[in-house]
Amino acid sequence: MTTIAGTDPRTGSALPPVTESTTDDQLDRLVDAAHHSAAAFAALARSDRATLLDTIAAEVERRRDELIETASRETGFGEAKLSGELTRTAFQFRFFADVVREGSYLEAIIDPAADTPMGPRPDLRRILTPLGVVAVFGASNFPFAFSVLGGDTASALAAGNPVVIKAHESHPATSQLSYEVIQAALAYSQAPVAAVAIVFGREAGARLVAHPQVTAVGFTGSLTGGQALLDIIGRRAVPIPFYGELSSLNPVIVTPGAAADRGAEIGTALVASFTAGSGQLCTKPGFVLVPSGPDGDRLVHAARAALGTTEGHLLLNERTYTSYTAETATLERHLHTVKAPAAPDAGFAVTPVLFETQFTDLDHSLIHEVFGPVTVIARYEAEQTETAATRVFDTFPPSLTATLHVSDNDEAALVARLTRIAATRAGRILFDNFPTGVAVSWAQTHGGPWPSTNSLHTSVGATAIRRFLRPITYQNAPEAVLPEELRDNYTAIPRRMDGQLRPSS
To answer: Residue 165 pairs with which residues in a beta bridge?
Structure first.
């Protein structure tokens, strides 16, 4: 049995052991218990499920200091970053509590029996229902918001599913403590305590995905890791949905007008964006088109100056550190290189890097997501804006985001064309901002065409809940067997009645 322990990114030395890897027998018992809790958990009143989510949020805040201290020790992230992430985490649980109470996520539809042009229609009542046990994989770069206490867990629980979480090896102590937070909340709720479980170790993660009682998988991580889990799912006797957030370059297009209007401002903000979280964000801008000429020069000079003031960047683990070092060394052999002040020679400390090239000279095979504080600026001729942008979107894989920095001065037609192109290649299009910030809201989309994700659904925002639900229709059913949301006189949620959307009352 393997001991599970984190590593201090500041020194590269092992931290005290947290637990041991989960055995096959232990995993089977945990998943079986979660499976047998599914009916009771799904049957909870929406108000009780919402209360559980609110209670988890309150417990997160009660143990804030302990959570931050533990996560900082394992990830190298500072208190400010982790505190903001923990605030987001608590907000996320409360947000999904509100989604559950509001009820429109159920997509309740009633088509009463009627004569229609195609003949008699039976009474049909449709609603979304939980899938069953959901496997959630914690992410390395967000020890709270995309891990044990993350959005996949929150949305799966909100939908009424038990959850078995695979702890990430980069922060096992944080994962264990986060699991204890959820267990404390479960103890105060009407929900079965077996509805949430945690496992440790890569072999346990693989066995979890293959387990016949698991009905869906939520994953945030590398493309290679996601493909490995997809291969396991492909060998299952019964396939299940896999919701992976995997790889994203997140291109940025700066138009000539934007460079003229505020080039220096954009350059400074670019560095803040691609070094945020030491560049270990799935929304990091990894490639930037900047016009040639004096306006673009001001942008690049501002970026270089900002890079000269950034320091203290740590990567999460040895694998990320080794990959970053190799990838940036390859780029250095081909592109002009501007570096931040040298990182200390300790642990997983790295130096942020800005690469520069001419777009016409660029070897597109060199450009892909590099996890860490690095981006590539490619200069293009102003009259070739649309041609260069089209080539970027056609050549590079689709992304979670595409960013357009534009001007109000005589660029309306160009901006419209760029927007149409970007909309085919990204899940979120930003204007005059940077993508390293994903609000939790009803309208948010955190997803995009493969390989950014393999899903039609977002992993952030209210509709993330849709991943862990399936439709069921009751035909000519006795009212006593119907979910209360489908009964005749129920009006507490929005419903579509005989084709007409009716608000709650």
So the answer is: 136, 198
